[in-house]
Structure formats: C-alpha cells, structure tokens
Amino acid sequence: MPRSNAEIGVAVAHRARYPNGLPTGTPQHMNEILKSDDIVAKVGGRFKLASLIQRRIAQLLDGARPLVERNGRSDFEVVIEEIATDKISIDWEQSGIKNPAKSRKG
Asked: Phi and psi (nearest 5°) for 52?
C-alpha cells in the first residue's frame, strides 16, 4: 500500500531522530508497527491479526504473563510488541487454518 507524503515525512523524521529505530514501547513505535504491512503479513491478514490480538488480550486478562516487559504499557501495546518480536503467532496446525507463508512459497 503506497504511503502518503505526510506518512513518509513522519517516517523520515523518526529515522533522523532515532537512527537505530524507534525506542520500543513508545506510542510512536506502536503506531509504526500497526501502519506497517509486515505485522499483517506475519499472521496472514487483518482479520487474523485482530483475532490473535483479541485472544492474547483475553489470556492476559485471565492472568497469563506477558512475554515482553510491560513497562507501564497497556495489554494492547504488550500484545502488539509480542507479535512484532515473534513471541506469539497463530498455531497453524492446531487452528486448521492454512498458513499463508507456506502457500506463497510453493
């Protein structure tokens, strides 16, 4: 998906301010992750991403431990960081859903 000039300008400004990448856990970092198609591609689509986020938030609310440092962040921010750092993903075999990464490769 093409990015607007405003989005490109924001990305360039962030790279200038944070040459080693945005500090993890900041609202700007979360926004950059969510704007990226990479996180959507990791799980095979926006609906699967929304479902994964919802299920993981429910686990956290039921007492599961976060797989990344909370650092005062909301459950939503923790889950996005867990997905972005590959701490959680969809269990393709157990879910019975076709893995989009495998179907693209062969």
From this structure: -60, -45
